[in-house]
Amino acid sequence: MGKERGHKVIVSNRKARHDYSILDTYEAGLVLVGTEVKSLREGKASLADAFATVDDGEVWLRNVHIPEYVQGTWTNHMPRRTRKMLLHKGEIEKLIGKTKESGLSLVPLSMYFKDGKVKVELALAKGKKAWDKRQDLAKRDADREVRKAMGRALKGRY
């Protein structure tokens, strides 16, 4: 059996892009136990309320729900346990500075397998206000209308 290659998305946090302005992204590994990986291979996880914190020079992923492995025994994991993230020291120091001084948040955008290992796309993000969200929705609707009009014009149906 060879190692699996490629990029397979397990779960993505679409609501994060709606609620936050993404400033920068990082790829981080996760410290997991065996039953967590087996559960992830079945495509089961939720990033709905997930966030990351920096404590004592280490980055921790909190509130990620990875359900118990169905065929697991007494060695099964806790579904919402805090998981350690693996980043380079320079990246961690940069994150410490940005989250402390400017009040930015660390939000997971997606979880995926990369060359057989579980990775998390972590975003340095700033929370949007309600008017920002409305403005984004209005811009998206306007872009959609422009695309429709261009399509009609190209087909000769003004």
Automatic annotation (TrEMBL):
Subcellular location: Cytoplasm
Gene3D superfamilies per the UniProt record, alphabetical: 2.40.280.10
Domain of life assignment: Bacteria
Keyword Cytoplasm annotated: yes
This protein's record includes keyword Cytoplasm: yes
Leader sequence segment: none
SUPFAM superfamilies, per the entry: Small protein B (SmpB)
Major subcellular site: cytoplasm
Keyword tags: Cytoplasm, RNA-binding
Role this protein plays: Required for rescue of stalled ribosomes mediated by trans-translation. Binds to transfer-messenger RNA (tmRNA), required for stable association of tmRNA with ribosomes. tmRNA and SmpB together mimic tRNA shape, replacing the anticodon stem-loop with SmpB. tmRNA is encoded by the ssrA gene; the 2 termini fold to resemble tRNA(Ala) and it encodes a 'tag peptide', a short internal open reading frame. During trans-translation Ala-aminoacylated tmRNA acts like a tRNA, entering the A-site of stalled ribosomes, displacing the stalled mRNA.
Family of the protein in this entry: Belongs to the SmpB family.
HAMAP family according to UniProt: SmpB
Record-given protein name: SsrA-binding protein
Organism: Amycolatopsis magusensis
